[in-house]
């Protein structure tokens, strides 16, 4: 059986503007863009590729899928992401089934979580 890989596609209003945020947030590299797309890849390690895709319509509700960023110190990581332009969507940490996370949004409002690694 052959090996498969996968990538993630995030619908955004402006991929060129949002690419630096996600590159820093995920410690990825911006490979480049063409037309309505900008590609990001892990910097020197394995992981899925992230394609930012420009769409005309705005987000109207909760994301059906979101990214989780895992960190040993979620408060410190949330602070780092806030310094890049993210914002917290919850006033504190959410805890469920023995796991804690912070719900956040990127500069365009796309939701993601910072959880314990």
What does this structure look like?
The chain has about 120 residues and is of the alpha+beta class. About 20% of the residues lie in helices and about 40% in strands. The protein is built from 2 helices and 9 strands. The strands form 2 sheets. Strands 5, 6, 7, 8 and 9 form a 5-stranded mixed β-sheet that branches. The N and C termini lie far apart (about 30 Å).
Give a quick rundown of the structure:
It holds the Pfam family Glyoxalase_6. It comes from Nonomuraea roseola. The protein is α+β, with helices and mostly antiparallel strands and 117 residues long.
Give me the CATH architecture of the largest domain, please: Roll
Kindly provide the radius of gyration, computed on alpha-carbon positions and rounded to a whole number of angstroms.
Answer: 15 Å
In the residues, how many domains can be counted? Answer: 2
Tell me the series of helices and strands, N- to C-terminal.
EHEEEEHEEEE
Organism: Nonomuraea roseola
Pfam families: Glyoxalase_6 (PF18029)
Protein name: VOC family protein
Domain VOC: 3-117
């Amino acid at each position: 059986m052959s090996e498969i890989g996968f990538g993630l596609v995030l619908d955004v209003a402006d991929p060129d503007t949002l690419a630096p945020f996600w590159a820093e947030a995920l410690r990825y590299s911006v490979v480049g863009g063409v037309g309505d797309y900008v590609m990001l890849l892990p910097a020197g390690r394995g992981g899925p590729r992230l394609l930012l895709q420009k769409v005309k319509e705005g987000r109207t509700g909760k994301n059906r899928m979101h990214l989780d960023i895992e960190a040993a110190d979620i408060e410190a990581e949330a602070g780092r992401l806030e310094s890049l332009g993210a914002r917290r969507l919850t006033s504190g940490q959410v805890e469920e089934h023995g796991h804690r996370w912070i719900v956040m949004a990127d500069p365009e409002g796309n939701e993601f979580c910072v959880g314990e690694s």
